Amino acid sequence: MRLKNFSAICFDMDFTLVSYSIERFVPMMYDVTAKFLVEKKGYQKDLQHFDDRDMKLIRQGLILDKATHHFLDVASSGEIISVHDGDSFLSPDKKLAIYPEGKWSHFDSFYKAFECDVNVPYGEMPYFFYDSSFVTPVIPFMAKYMRSLSRSDSDFGSKCQTLYRDVLESFNFNFNPDVFKAKTGFFFPEMVKNPDLYLEKASPKLKKRLKELKESGTKLALITASHIDYAELLMRYSYGDDWRDYFDLVICRARKPGFFASTPNSRPFFQWHEKSETAGVEALSELNSEDVFLEGHWTYVDKWIKCNAEKPGRVAYVGDSFKSDIIPTKLFTSWDLFAIVLEGKKYLRENSDENCDHRNKKAHLEESEGWGNFFGSEKTIYYNCWKIDGSRRYYFK
């Protein structure tokens, strides 16, 4: 399917339009989380060290069962493929001793959360779902802390529950959009200081393609969960000072997946006033190309596209996060979906011809040496989500 045949294309930002240098970004993400937990919560200092063993534990699509305090790789049928206790992978016998039915008990509610109740607060879920490179780097910290404890101790469970709460607090401390302007936390100051270490410049080919699409009459929209200040930092570094010229519509702090899953009346837009660096107080349902908007709902974007489209065609959305982009877009919108999947690069290299652009791409973190690659196996939790056509493009079923 040719992109120019769409009347509009909406893009996520992180790991979609903006690429990170994964080999540096992941250790940095570990560092900022570990620094908070050690300095603010009193965890042992030796947990701050990140090494090769830690890298082997990191992979998207893993789950932490808060009831048993084990890391899981779960199949699309609910079958538990692998179990890690923080120190090592368990043998089949030990795995069955903990999960005698061989299936994860929360599997059905896990999928139901995507279909109906996507706004359940993360801390209230009976599991952690590691679905992006913003959260996977915390896996080795949690594993090492569990390894420092004894599972036979009576307070092991309570210490783990404290860890889970502290990890969520570290996310809020480092990644809450409000802390960028306040220059607090450890993540945003590091990104402002050293963007060249963690970000990659957009390729001239991609920039040219975006311009061509816009010139052909395809409406282009940026829809990101990041606040405008962080989006400005990333997009300016990646695309240049004129980055807004690439888009007809810019929406920040979209608060996905609610941007797709909530009711339209509960999710108005607010205009961003650049001079005062404040959000307007008036709730809006009408959009324009001149301003930046915050929050909102996909149906208002869809309405704007229908009113302003220069050519007929469907709307496409391009994103990377299963929880925030891929699943809610497919379940709640009428848009076509293109998913950016880091783990797909290895499959493309091994199953494509010499002319495929992806064939010689560097592996990054596409496959964990411990867990393996979630993409392409009939057992992985995402397998039923994907199909591959003759041209080797990836679509959500």
Low-confidence parts: 352-365, 386-397
- First-last Cα distance: 15 Å
Overall average residue pLDDT: 85
**In terms of structural class, how would the helical and strand content be classed?**
alpha/beta
Q: Which radius of gyration do the C-alpha atoms yield?
A: 21 Å
Strand coverage percent = 15-25%
Biggest β-sheet description: 8 strands, mixed
Q: How many individual helices? A: 15
Q: Give, in spatial order, the strands making up the sheet with the most strands.
A: 11-10-12-9-8-1-13-14
Helical content (DSSP H or I, runs of 4+):
25-40%
β-strand number? 16
Shape category: globular
Explain what you see.
This protein has 397 residues and is α/β, with parallel strands linked by helices. It has helices at 22-39, 52-56, 92-98, 107-115, 138-148, 156-175, 178-182, 187-193, 195-198, 204-215, 228-239, 258-261, 298-308, 322-332, 344-351, and strands spanning 8-11, 19-20, 62-65, 70-74, 80-84, 127-130, 199-200, 219-223, 249-252, 269-273, 278-279, 292-295, 315-319, 336-339, 386-388, 394-396. The strands form four sheets. An eight-stranded mixed beta sheet has the order 11-10-12-9-8-1-13-14, with helices on both faces. Strands 5-4-3-6 form a four-stranded antiparallel beta sheet, with no helix packed on it. Helix 1 (22-39) packs across helix 6. The longest helix has 20 residues, at 156-175. The radius of gyration is 21 Å and the shape is globular. The two termini are 15 Å apart. Mean pLDDT is 85; it is low at 352-365 and 386-397.
